[in-house]
Design a protein that fits this description.
By secondary structure, the chain is α/β, with parallel strands linked by helices. It contains ten helices and ten strands. It has a five-stranded mixed β-sheet with strand order 2-3-1-4-5, sandwiched between helices. The protein has a five-stranded antiparallel β-sheet with strand order 6-10-9-8-7, sandwiched between helices.
């Protein structure tokens, strides 16, 4: 997963620098000063797009007074998918707010592929179960009867996804739709586990309906239906900066376009994703096979 860099003094052609401002547009300190000096922020303009920057006022009151301006920004970012917005830690300097105060305002932005958030914001938004991978597999095993019963209630893959591709060479990857569930996670992986995941997966049996690959640049683990190329799961991961060889998966996006994927249960999808991941790492049991492949 990509985060907003801690220090920005250069923008790519389609980048927009998003900074905290005040309603008076006095861009004299912190990220606001950088926006004025380098990226076209206009003195006296405290809100919105200006040059290659975007101002969100944070000095006018409590967090509730900032939210409308963040919502306005998210709406614009959604309307301009060709632009990449680099959100700085707005409100966390002279305005005196904490990451925990501001990050929840950007929950919707986390869904947008063209918005980068500070790592501190993402960690607040994705604070989850905090278990190791092994602990999650054990938790899955303890809940196996209910999970397997729920999995058996879902239609078979052929009914859900239609005609298969004629050969492996016909495989195509469809983009993740805009309609998604976002499941917060905090799954810790060691280097051996991560290396196994990064190798990817191509199905070699009829009962295996999954193709998996990783995007190392953007830090995602992506599962597709092998027959149709429909993008079902996309998990974001990063290597822990102060603990080399340790990786964390911090959230899971699940396809919720009913025309592509009929399931709508986050818990069931999390169980299936975890089972697929466990088997990719070499863990095998009849339970995991049943949850992962329905067999």
């Amino acid at each position: 997963m990509q985060f907003t860099p801690d220090f920005i003094d250069y923008l790519q052609p389609d980048d927009i620098f998003v900074f905290g401002s005040n309603l008076a547009g006095s861009h004299i300190g912190g990220a606001a000063r950088i926006a004025r000096k380098k990226f076209g922020a206009i003195p006296g303009v405290g809100v919105g797009l200006q040059g290659r920057s975007y101002a969100i006022p944070t000095m006018q009151g409590g967090v509730e007074t900032i939210k409308p301006y963040v919502d306005q920004f998210v709406q614009l970012a959604r309307m301009l998918p060709s632009k990449r917005f680099l959100v700085t830690r707005i409100g966390c300097g002279i305005a005196g707010f904490t990451d925990a105060d501001i990050a929840p305002l950007f929950a919707e932005a986390l869904r947008l592929p063209n918005v980068l958030l500070p790592q501190e914001f993402v960690q607040v938004l994705c604070a989850g179960i905090g278990d190791t991978f092994e602990a999650l597999v054990l938790k899955l095993d303890k809940e196996r009867q209910e999970i397997v019963r729920e999995m058996e209630s879902v239609k078979p893959d052929g009914e859900r996804f239609g005609t298969a591709a004629s050969s492996a060479d016909d495989f195509r990857k469809m983009p993740m739709p805009e309609s998604v569930s976002l499941i917060p996670l905090d799954i810790k992986l060691n280097k051996t586990q991560m290396d196994a995941i990064l190798r990817g997966h191509r199905p070699d049996a009829m009962e295996d309906h999954w193709y998996m690959c990783c995007d190392r640049e953007y830090g995602t683990i992506d599962y597709y239906r092998s027959w149709t190329g429909i993008h079902i799961y996309s998990a974001s991961y990063y290597e822990v900066p102060d603990d080399p060889g340790t990786f964390r998966i911090i959230y899971l996006k699940v396809n919720r376009d009913a025309s592509q994927y009929s399931d709508s249960c986050d818990r069931r999808d999390l169980a299936q994703f975890l089972a697929l991941l466990a088997m990719q790492c070499g863990v095998y049991s009849e339970l995991l096979s049943k949850v992962a492949y329905g067999g």
